[in-house]
Specification:
The radius of gyration is 18 Å and the shape is elongated. The two termini are 30 Å apart. It has two helices and no strands. The protein has 72 residues and is an all-alpha fold. Helix 1 packs antiparallel against helix 2.
Length: 72
């Protein structure tokens, strides 16, 4: 299941970006940085929403397959 590795890579990249922005916030205190930080936070929230929806879809598909394969 290669897609699981891709999901973990996305999570990791998002966390690294957020951490880098947070670390840089100590150095930069201007409006442009504030805007960048807000944009990155927004992307992080959207990514989290996409990952959660994907996980719900995966579970639904697994449940559908389980039910479809039941013997009556």
């Amino acid at each position: 299941m290669g897609y699981l590795n891709e999901i973990e890579d996305m999570k990791s990249a998002s966390a690294k970006l957020s951490n880098a922005i947070r670390a840089a916030s100590a150095l930069w205190k201007d409006k442009q940085f504030e805007d960048l930080s807000a944009s990155v936070s927004g992307v992080g929230r959207m990514l989290r929403t996409v990952l959660e929806a994907g996980e719900r879809s995966r579970r639904s598909i697994e449940e559908f397959d389980r039910i479809a394969n039941e013997r009556y």
